[in-house]
């Protein structure tokens, strides 16, 4: 019985995430595992939620899915997961793509229950909340229910 049958590769589309994805795909090829490429669309209202003090209830504006900003974020996500799918096809690795909405660290950690391994970049697109609250990779590594492989480019 293989220990790692299902690998989750979250991506933000950055060069570091692409590098981590290639490492994850190589591993998947070697052990004949299936891969899910995941992109989480993070809504701008989460920034206010994370930086606020007190009990703030996040409310998603109903027009968000129709906005140009949402469409741009969705397009970035589609490009990111399609890259992993195309690279997987070159290696003969089965890749499913998913784009979901919410807070990346929380959703990736929650999804970890469905996977045997998570492979993600130790670095990603940086933002002020990462500096204040810690990066997605750090939070996933601390809260995931499965092993997490953090990939860093040589020399970083």
Detailed description of the structure:
This protein is α/β, with parallel strands linked by helices. It has one domain (35-151): 3-Layer(aba) Sandwich (Rossmann fold), CATH 3.40.50. The chain is 45% helix and 19% strand. The chain has six helices and five strands. It has helices at 15-31, 45-51, 68-91, 104-111, 128-133, 136-143; strands at 6-10, 34-41, 95-101, 117-121, 148-151. A five-stranded parallel sheet has the order 3-2-1-4-5, sandwiched between helices. Helix 1 runs parallel beside helix 3 and helix 4 (104-111) runs parallel beside helix 6 (136-143). It is globular, with a radius of gyration of 16 Å. The termini are far apart.
- Low-confidence spans: pLDDT under 50, at least 5 residues? 46-57, 127-133
Widest beta sheet: strand line-up: 3-2-1-4-5
The quaternary state of the protein chains shown equals: single chain
Order of helices and strands: EHEHHEHEHHE
CATH class: Alpha Beta
Roughly what fraction of the amino acids lie in strands?
15-25%
Which structural class should the secondary elements be placed in? alpha/beta
- Shape annotation: globular
Bin the helical content.
40-55%
Q: What number of domains? A: 1
Mean pLDDT figure: 83
CATH superfamily: HUPs
Count helical runs. 6
Terminus-to-terminus distance = 35 Å
Largest sheet: 5 strands, parallel
Q: Total strand count, please?
A: 5
Q: Might you state the CATH topology name?
A: Rossmann fold
CATH hierarchy: architecture: 3-Layer(aba) Sandwich
User: What is the radius of gyration?
Assistant: 16 Å
